[in-house]
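Reference record
================
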Amino acid sequence: MNPNCSDTLVFFGATGDLAYKKIFPALQAMVKRGNLNVPVIGVAKAGWNLDQLKARARDSLEKHGGIDPAAFEKLSSLLRYVDGDYSDVATFQQLRQELRQAGRPAYYLAIPPTAFGIVVEQLSKTGCTQNARMIIEKPFGRDLASAQELNAILLKTFNEKSIFRIDHYLGKSPVHNMLFFRFGNAMLEPFWNRHHIESVQITMAEDFGVQGRGAFYEQVGTIRDVIQNHLFQVLANVAMEPPIRTDSESIRDEKVKVLKAIPPLDAKNVVRGQFKGYRAEPGVSSNSNVETFALLKLEVDSWRWRGVPFYIRAGKNLPVTCTELQVNLRQPPTMYDQYNLKSNSFRFRISPNVVAAFGLNAVSPEDESVSRLVELKVDRTTGPKEMEAYERVLTDAMMGDATLFAREDYVEEAWRIVDPVLKAGTPVHEYEPKTWGPEEAHSIRPPGGWHNPVVNSQPAK
């Protein structure tokens, strides 16, 4: 075993929805790949025993990815279970017994943030924190003040190098590989700056609603749910400088520098929307002011990017499901004024498939007096052997590799940027499902207009 690897995984919230849909499939995949061969202790207050937890794991895998008989048998042999209230010291005394001789446990809090403090306190009281790692599930706070409070709670017991704040989006292979694509290829760097790039667009669209999770969504909204964390990570990957080394701290240093260069959001640069019918969802207030769509205009006030606007939009019940980056270049001086030339572009699609494409002007073969934009494109689907997001982040956390995890200063900088808008009470505008947001979204428009992703060769509305 890698001497740096955790020798036990304890996950709180073992009977919850996240464990059912994501964690058990990730654990089986880790076993199958040879990355998990240590005890896995589930902790929850459900009145269950170990056999019931194993049955839950089996049911989870049958519905989410399928059972691999050999891997599941191995996982089943690794499972342990502690049942009890998180506020009861007896629960943690029982956990201490299960840990036995574990010297480097990893604790994964797949529980609401309101329970973080009591769990950390009880682990400390019962002597369970020495040489331990703490893996924290998002959301990490709901604003700057609450994030700082959570950081203070964790840092009383754990040092920063032992804290792994999950953003599972970074575990997705295309997001993870964006940096390799940027810095492993020389062709982008000459034009990847304010002299050549006119604007940057990041779109995360979902063609479905809240899918019965209205009560959860009422507590977050689009800015908290996907922009402040997922899409800021994409933005950081786009805008960061090349790290001096590829170790986790060098990479995370450069990402933090990007966020530090972004001024706090001004309300005039934000449009929020809510799809028609959202307020009828179970668990949603009849007068809800929560956004299911948000559009932001940001500035990265650095040497490389000053003057280049960055546009982010995300939402539910949009025309397609797709996450895509569009970089538009400035128009060159040209003698071809008779042509309606478009901006050259670079497009990087993260999902549902992976695409890297350069948009270039070319003379139409049908009419040489007309030009059209064509793409030089590399398109691939993710392979069956690629790690899913939760498998990757849990494997990395167990190994102590913090590259894909948000550091304390990164989290607080991200909240600093959006905090003014979250507190400003900006209006929420209604929009029709399967459209690109409310009419008011047209007030924030990139030069040349928005690039609307096309999926399966069907143009978006």
